[in-house]
């Protein structure tokens, strides 16, 4: 059954996450449930705050949204985040939420822009 509304959260609110957040906030068929980044002053965190979207420095807060969340987007590029998200979904039995990683986002942004988008990563430890 097709979705009329996608409930989405994003982990990573820097140079990759911010343009993505702008696109997500601009469409009526996405409800942005939250944004996580270690840097409370990251541009995407400020953008989310301006739009009244929940922000957190702990990405596990977003994973804990459970089945209320359709898509959890991780643009950190940090393998430990990816593994921790997988583990959280398994432990909670959440078979609803889809985790989308940076490679898929790079493809989608490149398609939208009509040219290859390079992702910039700051390999911070999470």
TrEMBL record:
GO terms for molecular function: NADP binding; oxidoreductase activity. It comes from the Bacteria. This is Oxidoreductase. Signal peptide: none annotated. InterPro entries: Asp/hSer_DH_NAD-bd, NAD(P)-bd_dom_sf. Gene3D superfamilies: NAD(P)-binding Rossmann-like Domain (3.40.50.720). Residues 12-91 form the Aspartate/homoserine dehydrogenase NAD-binding domain.
């Amino acid at each position: 059954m097709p979705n009329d509304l996608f409930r989405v959260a994003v982990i990573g609110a820097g140079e990759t996450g911010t343009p993505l957040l702008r696109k997500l906030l601009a469409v009526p068929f996405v409800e942005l449930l939250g944004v996580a980044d270690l840097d409370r002053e990251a541009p995407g965190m400020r953008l989310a705050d301006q739009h009244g979207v929940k922000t957190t420095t702990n990405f596990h807060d977003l994973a804990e949204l459970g089945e209320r969340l359709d898509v959890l987007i991780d643009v950190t590029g940090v393998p430990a985040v990816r593994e921790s998200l997988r583990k959280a979904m398994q432990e909670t039995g959440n078979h609803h939420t889809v985790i989308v990683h940076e490679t898929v986002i790079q493809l989608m942004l490149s398609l939208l822009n009509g040219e290859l988008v390079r992702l910039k990563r700051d390999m911070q430890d999470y």
